[in-house]
């Protein structure tokens, strides 16, 4: 078999060049790490050293995958929290994570908040930034500036801003119809990413991807629809402004260019989030969380 495989490989460049127009443009995915099947990966954050932080809707824990040992281990548990979601880095190895009480589809309104995980010391240092009584079902998290987080409430269809240093917060968008759930699942506003002056967001139960301008003070403008025919979960951007959206229910990762054109890049079951590698060797690798697995595939842009 190995010989046959090798001989096939030898012909591959020829096959590719002669049938380029017939081949699907989908990338082959690699399984980076697989948790037990009960795990539900929600967010991934790539550290500058290449280690991968993983949040889980099924546990109030943050895990870390080490590409050198190819092993994952629990970094920390958050007391009183049963689900972790959005994750973002504000300063080198200072991470912020959304957490709350959610299990088996049952959500506890008012339990959601933001936690800080500082990885600069000898051991991980966890602290509470703020638990917010007005939270319904927080999920997405992104950086507005070095001290300001934007947080999406998937059930309320609202966006909060919060100071990472003081925990002071306020709603900057409240119950926007573009962000509220459409029925079925209680998640509307899902992935959020602040990029180029706008908050880009998916509305997973309404199959939409949109953006809303947000100024430096956190004031929101008018929502602009980008597409309205594909489910979307969390996303990331490349340096050219293409969005890489995990489609969750559609089991794929799509690329959405600045004009809104969608290209399916890869098949990933239950995809929830994407993040680019940060080392020289992985800067064109897109990591994807989906179900209980972290997958990866190469991306050219
Ligand atoms: C934000 O933090 C980065 C380091 O993470 C620093 O290089 C940059 O100068 C900071 N920007 C502002 C406006 O303070
Ligand atoms: C960034 O925003 C500017 C101003 O709105 C716009 O002209 C430009 O096309 C945007 N760039 C990308 C990559 O989306
Ligand atoms: C942007 C977006 O997804 N919009 C949909 C989200 O939810 C509202 C209803 O609350 C729909 O009307 C939008 O089309």
TrEMBL record:
State the UniProt keywords alphabetically: Signal
Q: Does the keyword Signal apply?
A: yes
Determine if Signal is one of this entry's keywords: yes
Span of the secretion signal? 1-20
Q: Which residues form a coiled coil?
A: none
Write down what this protein is called.
SMP-30/Gluconolactonase/LRE-like region domain-containing protein
Q: Which species?
A: Hymenoscyphus albidus
Organism lineage string: Eukaryota, Fungi, Dikarya, Ascomycota, Pezizomycotina
């Amino acid at each position: 078999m190995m010989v046959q495989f090798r001989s096939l490989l030898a012909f591959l460049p020829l096959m590719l060049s002669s049938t380029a127009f017939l081949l699907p443009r989908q990338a082959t995915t690699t399984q980076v790490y697989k948790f037990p099947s009960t795990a539900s990966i929600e967010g991934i954050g790539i550290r500058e050293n290449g280690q991968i932080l993983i949040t889980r809707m099924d546990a109030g824990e943050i895990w870390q995958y080490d590409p050198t040992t190819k092993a994952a281990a629990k970094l920390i548990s958050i007391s009183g929290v049963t689900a972790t979601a959005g994750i973002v880095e504000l300063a080198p190895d200072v991470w912020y994570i959304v957490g709350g009480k959610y299990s088996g589809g049952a959500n506890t309104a008012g339990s959601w908040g933001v936690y800080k995980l500082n990885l600069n010391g000898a051991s991980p240092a966890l602290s509470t930034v703020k638990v917010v009584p007005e939270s319904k079902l927080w999920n997405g998290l992104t950086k507005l500036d070095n001290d300001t987080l934007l947080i999406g409430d998937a059930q309320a269809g609202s966006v909060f801003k919060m100071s990472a240093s003081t925990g002071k917060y306020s709603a900057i968008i409240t119950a926007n119809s573009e962000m509220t759930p459409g029925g079925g699942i209680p998640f509307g506003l899902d992935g959020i990413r602040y990029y180029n002056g706008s908050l880009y967001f998916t509305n997973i139960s309404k199959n939409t991807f949109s953006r809303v301008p947000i100024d430096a003070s956190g004031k929101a403008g008018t929502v602009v629809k980008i597409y309205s025919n594909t489910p979307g979960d969390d996303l990331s951007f490349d340096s050219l402004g293409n969005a890489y959206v995990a489609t969750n229910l559609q089991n794929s990762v799509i690329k959405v260019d600045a004009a809104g054109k969608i290209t399916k890049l890869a098949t990933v079951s239950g995809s929830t989030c994407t993040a680019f590698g940060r080392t020289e060797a992985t800067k064109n690798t897109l990591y994807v969380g989906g179900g209980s697995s972290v997958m990866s595939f190469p991306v050219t842009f």
